[in-house]
Amino acid sequence: RSARGNKSKAADLLGVSRRTIYRKIEEFGITDADI
Question: What is the CA radius of gyration of the chain?
Fold first, then answer.
């Protein structure tokens, strides 16, 4: 929620790469509507 749907900001906050965020989103079947 701190990132308000911003995947790049979420990656920074979590200390992971943007690629990791996108991979996890795909892995768990998360859609933009879920974020």
Answer: 9
CA–CA gap between residue 22 and residue 20 (Å, rounded):
5
Question: What is the tally of structural domains in the chain?
Answer: 1
Chain segment 2-22, per-residue pLDDT in tens: 888 899 999 999 999 999 999
Residue from 3, 1, 14, 2 nearest 23 by CA: 14
Take residue 5 and report the two structure tokens written for it: 């749907």
Which structural domain, as residue segments, surrounds residue 1?
1-35
The pLDDT of residue 2 is: 82
